[in-house]
Amino acid sequence: MGASPLKAIKKEEIKQPSLLLNKPWRELKFTEEVRTELIEDIKKYTTKADGVEQPRILLTGQIKAGKSSFFNSVNSVFKGFPIFQATACEKETSMSKYCRTYAVYESKDGKTLPFTFCDIMGLEPYNDKGILVKDIINVIRGYIPDNYKFDPNEAKEVFETCTEQPSLADKVHCIVYVIDASVVNLLDKELQNKFDEIHEEAHRLGIPQLVLLAKVDLTCNIVKDDLTKVYQSRYIHEKAIKVSHMVGVPVSCILPVRNYSSETDLDMKVDILILKALQQILRQSEAFFDEIKQRGKSKEAPPLTCEGISSRISNS
C-alpha cells in the first residue's frame, strides 16, 4: 500500500526551509571596483563638527569577539597587507587591559585617515572580570585618557583620571558593539544586562550605536565557502535579527564582517565587508554631531564636571 495522504502532508510540513534566502536581505556587490569606491569614499570623509577632525569610534563587546581584530583588519586594508598592531588573542580573558586610541594611516603617503578607534577591555559575564560598565560610560563621556589601565575590581573616581571638562573631540561619537555571531545564542544574562546599561546611557546621550557581527565565516558553512553569500544566508539573517533585539539596534545597523587573523595576503571579499562596515559607522557618526547641534539649540543643561559624574556614578 502507498503512503496515506495524511503522512504525505506531514512530511511536507516538516520540510526544512532553504539555507539561502530567495533574495539577499542587503545588496552588496563584491568587485574590485566596489572596493576602490569604498576606500575613496572613506578617505574623503570629513566631519561637520567644529573642533573634531576625526570621529572617535568606541569598540566594545564580549571578550574574544574580535574588537582588536576589526581595528587590525581596517588597518590592513589601508596598509595593503595584513598587519596586527592591536593585541588580539583567543584567551579566556580580555587581552586589552588598557584604553587605547588608534589612528589608521594610508600606506602611500602616511596621511592619517579621518577617524580613530578606541579599543578597550572586553565585557565578561562576571562582575569581577572584564571592564566595568561604569568605566565604559566614563570612556564614552571622554573622561578616560589614552593608555589608562582598567581594574576589573574597581572603577576609579573619574576626577583622578580626567580633565575638568572634556572637549567634544575627547568624547565618543559612535559606539560599535562587536559580537561573535557563533555564540549569540549562548550569551549570559549578566552580559546581556551590561549591554542594556550601555545602550540606555548611549541612547540618552544621543550617540549612534551599531553592531559588528563578527566571525560570520565560523558561524555558517555556506558563508565560509563563499563570503559573497553572507547576505543571502538564512542563518546569518536570523542571527542579525536576534542580535538586533538583544542589543536594541535596528537590523540596518547590524554589520556582518570577517576579520583578518592569520592571513599573509588580503582578500577582496573580506576587504569589502570591512570597508562597508566602516563606511556605515562614519555615516552614523554624523548623527551624533547633528544631535549636538540640536541639543545646543534647545539650551540643554551643560555637561557635568568630573566631580558631578563621579557623584552620579557613586549614587547609581
From TrEMBL:
Transmembrane segments: none annotated. One of its GO terms (biological process) is immune response. It comes from the Eukaryota. Coiled coil: none annotated. This is Interferon-induced protein 44-like. It comes from Erpetoichthys calabaricus (Rope fish). The lineage of its organism: Eukaryota, Metazoa, Chordata, Craniata, Vertebrata.
